[in-house]
Input
Amino acid sequence: MYVFTQYITLTDYLLLPVYLFVIFLFAAYYRNRYYPKTHPLRKYLFWGLSVKVFGGLFVGLAYHYYYKGGDTFYYWFHSLTINSSLQDSFASWFKLITGIGDYYDTDLYNYTSKMLWYDSSSDYVVPQIGAFLGLFALDSYLPMTALYSALSFLGVWKLFVVFTKLYPRLTKQMAFAFLFIPSVVFWGSGFMKDTITFSCLGWVTHFIYLIFFENKKVVANSIGALVFLYIIFIIKAYIIMAFLPAVLLWGVGLLSYRIKDARLILFVRYFLYAASIVGLVVVGGRLQTELFGQYNVESIGYKAAVTRDYLYRISSEQDGSAYSLGDMDPTLLGMLEKAPAGINVTLFRPYPWEARKPIVMISAAESLFFLAFSIVVIFRNNPIRVVQRILADETLQFCLIFTLVFAFAVGLSTSNFGSLVRYKIPCLPFYTAFLFIIFNPPKAELALKKKVKKKLV
Output
């Protein structure tokens, strides 16, 4: 379809420093305006943005020089095709970039016939954004990627800020969780779908926090949350199915903090939890019938089994990075039986001895860290205390519910470690934040522990 070497050229390297300068110039203005020198988050903005932007550029260079191709360049080919229509007319370009033009429209067919994903809304979102940014990047891949990564950083930063407001004593830990996890930086920064979805999760979390906890601009923030939820739904609907119940339960839990009476807080919190669950079941049932028919339990189980078997067969033949959870009955009970194995493979595998490729070896080292850290967290606090803290903290519940549901779904439907590294990145920051919060109990709790220990001595 295209000549691969046309995408990163000398022009990219000549233009890139100019665009990096502009990006960091705007970042400096934003930092100086909203984060003065005494602000505790000031130092993380430039570091986080730098890691994000250069992570995105590194993805492009890795795909170009190591993988010799990949989805990111197919997306860019679509973007170039969209912008090339400006040679004909603005009307043609507008129909293509908005996706409202018919595939067989005689005025557009010369362009739509070149784009494999024009009729795939989940894939076409990336080229649409790329085409718009390409207008400012002179249709050069690396400058466009830098802009794409920088814009996606805004959502990640908003997510980081929310957690630092909830846990100001854990600012450094939250910075690592949301800004500096290696696999999230790499796979969540390039010109691909995962970069958009993770950024949108940050925006949704930010808006839910403003609505339920700070009670600011409820209507405007609700619209903002719905917009970003819709974008996630278009790209990867299964993320919404795992994230929406968890974030709404978290929201109603935050709402109870605005009530001063302790007994009333307890009553309202669990009443809202119950009401949210009932509401989600009712609304979810209607949505499943009207919109999500293809996502009923039997369909999910069947599709997961088919996808898993296909990926396992292909990856076994090609690179040996396949894994298997064993035979699975594509029913609700059959899926639940595989839940522990699915969660384990997402969070803690590949094990070191299962890694046969450089990228999988890096993932294995990261997974080993999560496994070791999880064990340390449990034994440092003891299991009973961990459960008590989870039940008392709606943010811990939010992080854990989303992590477990998402890890279960991804681990069950993927049979290739190389793919798993990409697919699992939305839940890793939330799980990392969960571990750090548990690992670092409040000072009052630590003081009580020391007091009890002195009495025992």
